[in-house]
Write a structure and sequence with these properties.
Largest sheet: 2 strands, antiparallel
CATH architecture: Orthogonal Bundle
Shape: globular
Radius of gyration: 23 Å
CATH topology: MetI-like fold
Number of strands: 2
Distance between the termini: 51 Å
Structural class: mainly alpha
Amino acid sequence: MSKHTNQRIAFWIFRILGLIVVGILLWILGFIIWNGFGVINWEFLTEAPADGMTGGGIFPAIVGTCCLILGSMIVAFPIGVMSAIYTTEYAGNGRVVRFIRIMTDNLGGIPSIIFGLFGMSLFVNTFGWGDSILAGSFTLGLLVLPLVIRTTEEALKAIPDSFRTGSFALGATKLQTIRRVVLPMAFPNIVTGLILSIGRVSGETAPILFTVAAYFLPKLPTSIFDQVMALPYHLYVIATSGTDLEAARPIAYGTALVLIIIVLIMNILASVLRRYFGKKVKTN
């Protein structure tokens, strides 16, 4: 066969595989929307669970999930970005840095339930925070820290060295160059790590099971030391341990759909932020 024929065959293979992936995604979303859309109404979104969680709404779980996402990002994002700045801009490429990167990759491959056990041992018991938003946020922050570090490193490496050299030639210090040249240019790609982290944190069940999640808590938190309900754990509970599984099944699908919508909204906000800073960098 000619090169042109081989190219067309490869193109169609890739196209078919891409359509299969998109089809699976649409099938999953369609299944959740079809089974969960009928449950969603104003009461479902604004009321607390009732009747053994087979009635009422999921508002406390929505608030708890948003608190954990926000708290974990507050923990992971600054630490991850600063760690990546150190390994990329200051530490060079020696053995120590290579060892740190290997350990970071290994940390990213640890099962989430291990993070949950670690968080329970350190934050809940040793630090005395108890089952709380603070303990859960730190545990989830550690869970996504490797992802934030690696995506930030790649974003910083993508900035050409000519920009750094030009900044030094104008008399800027290393810190000024990083702060005013490198970070603003890399920030749109750094936000990618934020988007991926939000997606992972929002769906984790094992870490929050050990550190923050409550089985049934129909009230809103008043401090960072309170327990909360969370959508992933709430979904697990009503789908497996409810008193009436048939009555709870529609609520489970509705809960899953709300969780997907929350992740989608946060990803859209992060993408808007990324686009805003990307345009700002281009205009400057």
